[in-house]
Amino acid sequence: MDVKRSIRRKDDEFRAFVKRVIMSCFFKIIMISAVGSNAFFTALWTSYDIRYRLFRLLEFSEIFFVSICTSELAMKIYVDPTDYWKDGYNMLDVVIIIITFLPYAFRRFLGKQFTYLHVADGMQSLRILKLIRYSQGMRMMITAMRQTVYTVASVLLLLFLLMYIFGILGFCLFGSQDGGDYDNWGNLAVAFFTLFSLATVDGWTDLQKQLDNRDFALSRAFTIIFILLASFIFLNMFVGVMIRHTEDSIKKFERELMLERKMTLMEEKQVILQREQEEVSRLMHMQKNADCKSFSELVENFKKTLRHTDPMVLDDFGTSLPFIDIYFSTLDYQDMTIHKWQR
Q1: What is the pLDDT of residue 87?
Q2: Does 54 score more than 70 pLDDT?
Q3: Closest C-alpha among 153, 176, 157 to residue 165
Q4: Where do the H-state alpha helices sit in 116-203?
Q5: What is the distance of C-alpha 217 from the center of its chain?
Q6: 131: closest CA among 84, 75, 92?
Q7: Is the Cα dihedral 146, 151, 154, 155 positive or negative?
Q8: Cβ(73)–Cβ(93) under 8 Å?
Q9: CA dist list (Å): 137 to 24, 133, 142
């Protein structure tokens, strides 16, 4: 029989404080400002003239960005070291932190002449992806894209099969070395690139003109049929699938947002009801110990303690089970008090 040892942390108060700091709007503003300013300075870094003139400022912005992102990572892992790794956006933050340190590691251990150092520098543009966490709209689009993976893969597979068929057919019709368009149809790889240009309708007239100059009888029918199938059917199908799933994601997001607002409203109601129940109990206790006060005076004092003035909080207030429970408890206390007075 396996016995699970429950490890209880002794820093619950400090961990709760760190969690409040992370979830605060002020901390989110700091993170958005850090990422945005770093993206701006990275754009300035692409100019050699500005890079040399503002070297110290760019270096300070880099240190600030690395420090704030590393601190955020450490604080989130400290708050919840287990569930942190279950969130996809947290994993994205970890990947961005690793990418951030890659240029420093390459320069330190492999030297400044490392072949792929410029690739590591170029990957720093991925830092701006940290803004996805703080934008509900971008998260909604990511969710829509994740839901369309299977359908989009099916559409792309069909498009690949279509391009494969027309690629072989185009090679056989137009790819001959003797009088054929060998540059555009000479092998399957080149034919795929040509078909991609036809599918996007980018420069297809120039490609067709080269075929017309060589007097291929079936070239125009070949081009028109492929453009109709690839561009007007498959690509529009791809766009339609994305739009449909995006609309579904928007509706789901709106339902979740409405549910979250209702839960927040219920929590506010529970807090108010609990405070009023405690106040009623306190007043009833005061009534038992103070013979000089009448029940009407205690009721007036109770009315002064009511502080909820938001009309939304009172929505369906009288039909909630906690209110009914407190209401009947209050009536019982009143009956007991009247019975004591009568005695």
Answers
A1: 85
A2: yes
A3: 157
A4: 117-122, 136-147, 149-174, 182-185, 188-199
A5: 53
A6: 92
A7: negative
A8: yes
A9: 20, 10, 9
Q: What's the rounded Cα separation, in Å, for the pair 334 and 339?
A: 8
CA dihedral (219, 224, 229, 234) in degrees, to 10, reads 110
Structure-block tokens of residue 78: 């400290």
- Would you give the end-to-end CA distance of the chain in angstroms? 63
With 0.90 as the threshold, say if the pTM is over it. no
Rg for the chain, CA atoms, rounded: 34
CA angle (295 as vertex; 289, 297 as ends), nearest 5 = 100
Q: Is the dihedral of CA 329, 333, 336, 338 positive or negative?
A: negative
Condensed to tens digits (0 to 9), the pLDDT of residues 226-275 reads 989 888 888 888 888 778 877 877 787 778 778 888 887 887 778 777 77
C-alpha to C-alpha distance for 167 and 171, rounded to whole angstroms: 6
CA dihedral angle for residue 101, residue 104, residue 110, residue 113, rounded to 10 degrees: 120
